[in-house]
Amino acid sequence: MSRSTLTPDPRPLTPDLSVTIGSLRLKNPVLVASGTFGYGTEYAGLVDLSRLGGIVTKTLTPEAWPGNDPPRAAETAAGMLNSIGLQNVGVEGFIRDKLPYLQTVDTAVIVNIGGGPIEEFVAVAERLADCDGIDGIEVNMSCPNVAGGMDFSTDPRRAAQLITRLRKVVDLPLIAKLTPNVTDIGEIARSVEEAGADAVSAINTLRGMAIDVKTRRPKLGGITGGLSGPAIKPVAVAAVWSIARRVTIPIIGIGGIMSTEDALEFLIAGAAAIQVGTANFVNPKTGTDIVAGLDTYCAQEGITSIRSLIGSARVP
Amino acid sequence: MSRSTLTPDPRPLTPDLSVTIGSLRLKNPVLVASGTFGYGTEYAGLVDLSRLGGIVTKTLTPEAWPGNDPPRAAETAAGMLNSIGLQNVGVEGFIRDKLPYLQTVDTAVIVNIGGGPIEEFVAVAERLADCDGIDGIEVNMSCPNVAGGMDFSTDPRRAAQLITRLRKVVDLPLIAKLTPNVTDIGEIARSVEEAGADAVSAINTLRGMAIDVKTRRPKLGGITGGLSGPAIKPVAVAAVWSIARRVTIPIIGIGGIMSTEDALEFLIAGAAAIQVGTANFVNPKTGTDIVAGLDTYCAQEGITSIRSLIGSARVP
Amino acid sequence: MTPPSSPSPVFQVRAEVVANRQIGPGLYWIDLAAPEIVEHARPGHFVHLVVSDTTPESPCPVWMQYTPLLRRPFSIAEHDRARGTFSLIYRVVGGGTHILSTRRAGESLDVLGPLGQTFVPIQSGRPVVMIAGGVGIAPFFFLAQEAIQAGRARPQDMTVLFGAATASLLSGSDKFRAMGIDVSLATDDGTAGFHGFVTVLLEDLLRQNPSRCAYLYVCGPTPMMRRSAALAKEAGLLGQMSLEGIMPCGVGVCMACVVPCVRPPAGTVYERVCVSGPVFDLQEVILP
Amino acid sequence: MTPPSSPSPVFQVRAEVVANRQIGPGLYWIDLAAPEIVEHARPGHFVHLVVSDTTPESPCPVWMQYTPLLRRPFSIAEHDRARGTFSLIYRVVGGGTHILSTRRAGESLDVLGPLGQTFVPIQSGRPVVMIAGGVGIAPFFFLAQEAIQAGRARPQDMTVLFGAATASLLSGSDKFRAMGIDVSLATDDGTAGFHGFVTVLLEDLLRQNPSRCAYLYVCGPTPMMRRSAALAKEAGLLGQMSLEGIMPCGVGVCMACVVPCVRPPAGTVYERVCVSGPVFDLQEVILP
Ligand SMILES: Cc1cc2nc3c(=O)[nH]c(=O)nc-3n(C[C@H](O)[C@H](O)[C@H](O)COP(=O)(O)OP(=O)(O)OC[C@H]3O[C@@H](n4cnc5c(N)ncnc54)[C@H](O)[C@@H]3O)c2cc1C
Ligand SMILES: Cc1cc2nc3c(=O)[nH]c(=O)nc-3n(C[C@H](O)[C@H](O)[C@H](O)COP(=O)(O)OP(=O)(O)OC[C@H]3O[C@@H](n4cnc5c(N)ncnc54)[C@H](O)[C@@H]3O)c2cc1C
Ligand SMILES: Cc1cc2nc3c(=O)[nH]c(=O)nc-3n(C[C@H](O)[C@H](O)[C@H](O)COP(=O)(O)O)c2cc1C
Ligand SMILES: Cc1cc2nc3c(=O)[nH]c(=O)nc-3n(C[C@H](O)[C@H](O)[C@H](O)COP(=O)(O)O)c2cc1C
Ligand code: FES
Ligand code: FES
After folding, report:
1. pLDDT band at B142 (very low <50, low <70, confident <90, very high)
2. Interface residue ranges in chain A relative to chain D, Cβ cutoff 8 Å
3. How far does C33 lie from chain A, in Å, by closest CA?
4. Average pLDDT, 10 consecutive residues per value, chain A (316 residues)
5. How far apart are CA A51 and CA A57, in angstroms?
6. Measured from the CA of A229, which atom of ligand 3 is nearest?
7. H helices then E strands: how many in chain C?
8. Is B298 a catalytic residue?
9. What is the pLDDT of residue A173?
10. N or C: which end of chain A has fewer CB within 10 A?
11. Nearest residue on chain C to B74, alpha-carbon basis
12. Is A211 within 8 Å of B78 when comparing Cβ atoms?
């Protein structure tokens, strides 16, 4: 009779939090979202980056980009608007100044790319494909803050074209990031799946606007901007749910996540991983707190692998 | 020399709060939204209905309708989800039991109608066209809570068809109520304007979902539902702004309005009137408080007619 | 059970918090001053509260003042006409009740009430049993008190069966005893009274002492109400229960708080708990 | 003015509220205990606060605890290494600052800091003027105090020009006087000091007593900063100013808080106020 049957091990099994996104294995399903965590360095002193499932970096364009006129942010009810307009260091600046540090961090590095015409996306992707230390590419097809930036993810045909082109130059896991500002997000997801995306992430920000009634001026220099934060969580959960009904590739859920409960809601709705966005500004430790929270939750509920939670919603 | 030039009147001029929606003149721009104020009677003891610009009644279908399975509501961050599913007394029940009281109230009565196929809308509209005491018809093309209920306002062609048919049977001001769950709400607005709508109202609720992570069940019997309340205000303001860029007919702004400031934001963005929805549940006097607030605001700012505020946003 | 054609008037008032004290683990008792509401309140009525601090002078935007957004419903547990106050018993289960527990005497709350359908009053010569689980006890203080004060019924004709998870959540049973009412307790963990479900006490009573129960009032968690209704049906006993439901408006306009009810000949129809209830006849509701 | 390659460390701590008291109409002074932050704080640094009550044990959902959602930035006004406390002066202008004003001694706040670029320290033998509008005075307590305590400069070489809407908002001028610093006041309504803009005092000083001003520090409303920068330019005077900006993150990741800066040869570039500022050289920023 083996020892284990005589004296039960008092320590509960360590739950397996790992998930896979295409060929990419994440140590846990908690990523930080593009544009809300810089390039990793900024929060390195405050957050143990190696505890995160991964870091998604700010959207890169071929050249450094100045962004929109300020003001670029406004607080709203349980949310915020931004019209950053993709200010970024450009792909070369990233490779030179930011990537070396990221390569030293023991977490998945997913680089988010953007652009105007398809060729710009392709140029950035090709350049990144040559680099070490990049674990995946997320395609920001959906940024509402640059002119024409939305077309790729509001038209299923164009979305597919973009992904098809990128698929040719990128072997890395390719994640299509979708906008909620469409009639049928499931249809867009379906078309990028067919075009060869390894995963979709949803959602980017909702189109929104606020006006200062004293000055009668829009609160954003870009007039309209993107709404994020807890306010949009129900919209994001519904998006994940709809997409899960239409595709078989993994879904990364994003939108208003601030707590372990929020993360669980997305997993149960069908997300294989989640990203923490705006909440990083509020509490930079949100992501790592959620990792700890998922661990505790699984241990308490006797869940051996978090993968068993994905899409586990109970419906009549 | 007249007395008035000798002793200046200490009372400021009473600002003119009246606005017009097609041929309908409202004493002020503050309405209460469909589904959030019943048929007027319920709040009559708490609110001086005659102070309101108008009352929009719960969506009517040809027959009384049972609605969705409970639970039908869930609270979210600065908002709520509902999946009522258009439970209503039916057009005959309305005419028999609800209209007589509404006819006695000194405020505009706008009846909101809905249905599945176009014929149902037409049937309800024709029946109402015979009745006295109805000042306008709002067409709920956008309810996300009944199967097929969204098609009319996600496809510009079908939206136009519906309005064209209704225009033939209705002389009353015809207001098309739009959903935000579309790629381009301005395009839908444009098509209903061409089809003969006198005004558009925007927005109905955003599609959303919430899951109870303990039971793993959706918090709504209808699984997904409609998000309303302050959380969605930025989306609603952006919708009004976009529509104002595309149509010349009046816009009625709806979404998350709780205060005079909120109402002003919509007017400045381009709305000729506004509707208070979810806020009625929170404070039934929200609408009448806003009327008083607009009055004070105009008096203080020396605004003689509130119409001068409509679309007065200052942009570079 | 449609609402009466002339329902009692409903008021929206700023009620001063007279006292707000903890009476058990996560369990609170709050006294609110609102003479208009007190005057019209009847046993079974509930109020709908804004738990947060809303003052027109606040520099906070209005949405921020209303956080959480929706009102919270609570049954009236006691009223004092002389002082113009009424009382609630509430358990902290989430954000809204937590915020309520932090409100201090001297502050004021926005209250809507009295709301809903009331209990059939306890009548002389008809022995009643009130069976409660947890904070479901709240409306029964009012129900018993009112009948005794009005001289309509004697405490000897009333029995309270009161169950909770543990002894410290049974706060209030003394109040019934002080009125002269017989109280039997049950706890899930056996720390007080019977070790088990309170419905077992009802079962025993109906078997051993059926004359003590000519009418049944029920309030508590759904399984307890379902079981009580079943026991009443078996025994051919009439009675009422007070239900809960997610209530955005509390006054019948939003159609959110519905429960399926048996309504022959129409069959099953959705009734609003806030205006057709919260008090329903024991057999009319199809409990989930 | 890019951030130094090894910036001072940033901490996220729960800081205990040691005191939080009103010092004028809508004007407050708060002392917070956070030894790590105090140790590294230099004049010009700011902190980023969660104004609301966030405790892991709260039954409120996390989003509700963070209402309003974003942190609020405030300049460090004073620090006390011995006690491990730092102080802020803040004006209630909206929901966030209102909630901050309700926090009581003994409670704790989530604080991120110290953040941003600091002032060039006041140096011996270089007379300086600090010109402030309203709560813009806050960082100058720290600036003056630090230089005097370090023995790097004499109070006689410092001048404070302090303007506000009205006398009761000039709270704190005694503190400078107590240090031996010359203070001139200005109010929009003439209730104290010069009746008019504080920049007129600067204009007069630069004309009548230019030797009192070899370096200029500016903090206050935009028009005041614009005018001060213009006067400095005319006088060929170097100096710095501390800017504000909507700051979601405060640490340089969100790119929201930018101001256009003159950066030859690149031309105009957007710099982040939170990491490239809030302290900038007087002539480098293009003020709106
Ligand atoms: C008619 C009626 C009378 C009630 N009387 C009492 C009473 O006397 N004492 C008492 O402690 N509780 C009572 N309740 C339940 C009480 O309303 C809820 O516990 C409370 O609303 C929970 O709010 P929360 O923010 O703390 O919880 P959360 O779970 O955070 O609330 C989230 C949302 O769900 C709703 N909700 C959650 N639980 C309930 C529930 N059980 N019933 C209805 N809505 C719920 C809330 O109102 C809110 O909209 C009564 C409910 C109803 C409908
Ligand atoms: C580096 C820095 C230092 C500051 N130091 C001080 C100080 O020492 N004392 C003081 O009283 N104030 C200071 N401020 C301004 C202070 O941050 C704002 O007054 C405060 O954030 C207003 O919050 P609220 O919720 O009360 O106002 P609301 O107007 O309701 O705030 C809405 C949003 O706008 C932002 N906001 C509003 N006003 C400002 C502003 N002037 N600057 C930046 N963001 C703003 C808020 O942070 C919030 O995100 C400083 C600002 C910055 C950037
Ligand atoms: C300030 C800010 C900047 C952002 N920048 C980007 C970006 O560069 N690329 C991108 O794909 N998404 C960007 N986003 C969107 C977020 O990655 C995320 O999809 C969105 O904010 C919703 O998540 P949240 O509610 O958790 O913030 C940005 C969001 C914010 C708030
Ligand atoms: C409980 C509830 C029921 C509603 N029912 C209807 C309806 O029957 N018909 C309709 O056109 N809109 C309906 N609406 C949408 C509102 O009229 C309004 O468009 C929406 O709630 C946004 O406004 P708000 O944020 O102010 O609530 C309903 C909204 C709620 C919350
Ligand atoms: S709570 Fe709105 S109808 Fe009952
Ligand atoms: S506040 Fe985010 S970059 Fe400055």
Report:
1. confident
2. 35-38, 42-43, 45-46, 58, 66-67, 70-75, 78-80, 82, 84, 87, 229-230, 233, 256, 258-259, 261-262, 278, 280-285
3. 32
4. 45 86 96 96 94 97 91 98 92 96 97 91 94 96 58 87 96 96 96 98 97 97 97 98 98 98 98 98 98 96 96 94
5. 17
6. 25
7. 8, 16
8. no
9. 97
10. N
11. C246
12. no
Say if residues D63 and A256 touch (Cβ distance below 8 Å): yes
Question: Does the CB atom of residue D135 touch ligand 2 within 6 A?
Answer: yes
pTM over 0.80: yes
Half-sphere exposure (CA, 13 Å, Cβ side) for D159?
22
The two structure tokens encoding residue D244: 């504000």
3-state SS string for chain A: CCHHHHCCCCCCCCCECCEEECCEEECCCEEECCCCCCCCHHHHCCCCHHHCCEEECCCECCCCECCCCCCCEEEECCEEEECCCCCECHHHHHHHHHHHHHHHCCCEEEEEECCCCHHHHHHHHHHHHCCCCCCEEEEECCCCCCCCCCHHHHCHHHHHHHHHHHHHHCCCCEEEECCCCCCCHHHHHHHHHHCCCCEEEECCCEEEECEECCCCEECCCCCEEEEECHHHHHHHHHHHHHHHCCCCCCEEEECCCCCHHHHHHHHHHCCCEEEECCHHHHCCCHHHHHHHHHHHHHHHHCCCEHHHHCCCCCCC
The ligand 6 atom nearest the CA atom of D255: 3
Q: 3.40.50.300, 3.20.20.70, 3.40.190.10, 1.20.58.340: which CATH number matches A14-309?
A: 3.20.20.70
Of A267, A274, A276, A269, give the one whose Cα is nearest residue A307. Answer: A267
Task: Provide the residue ranges of all domains of chain A, joining segments of one domain with +.
Answer: 14-309
Q: E strands within chain D?
A: 11-24, 27-33, 46-50, 72-75, 78-80, 85-91, 108-115, 128-133, 158-164, 182-187, 194-195, 215-219, 239-242, 258-263, 267-272, 279-281
Q: Mutation test of ligand 5: which of C72, C115, C117, C251 has the most ligand atoms closer than 8 Å to its C-beta?
A: C251
Q: Looking at the partner chain, which of A35, A58, A285 has a beta carbon nearest the beta carbon of D12?
A: A285
Residues of B with Cβ-Cβ distance to D95 under 8 angstroms: none
Reference A298, options A48, A52, A29; nearest CA is: A29
Reading the block at residue D252, the tokens are 């340089």
CA of A155 vs chain B CAs: smallest distance (Å): 9
DSSP secondary structure of C181-217: -EEEEEETTSSSSEES-HHHHHHHHHHH-GGG-SEEE
Kind plus residue range of the DSSP H or E element containing B187: helix B185-194
pLDDT at B74 over 50: yes
Chain A residue whose CA is closest to B81? A234
Which atom of ligand 6 lies at the shortest distance from residue A281's CA? 2
Q: Residues, chain D, total? A: 288
Name the more confident of B12 and B133: B133
Locate the chain A residue with the closest alpha carbon to D259: A70
B-chain CB neighbours of C277 within 8 Å are none
The token pair at A61 is 């364009």
- Map tokens 């009281």 to a residue: B101
CA of D248 to the centre of ligand 3 (A): 12
Disruptive mutation site among B76, B151, B178, B301 for chain A (greatest number of A CBs within 10 Å): B76
How far does chain A reach from its first CA to its final CA, in angstroms? 45
Computed from CA positions of residues D204, D207, D212, D213, in that sequence, does the dihedral angle turn out positive or negative?
positive
CA distance A164 to A162: 5
Q: Decide: D170 and D164 in contact? Cβ < 8 Å.
A: yes
b/e burial code for range B101-130 (CB count within 10 A of at least 16 → b)? ebeebebbbbbbbbbeeeebbbbbbebbee
Q: Copy the structure tokens of residue C24.
A: 């058990």
Catalytic amino acids of A? 143
Q: Which residue has the tokens 């990028």?
A: A192
Amino acid at C256: A
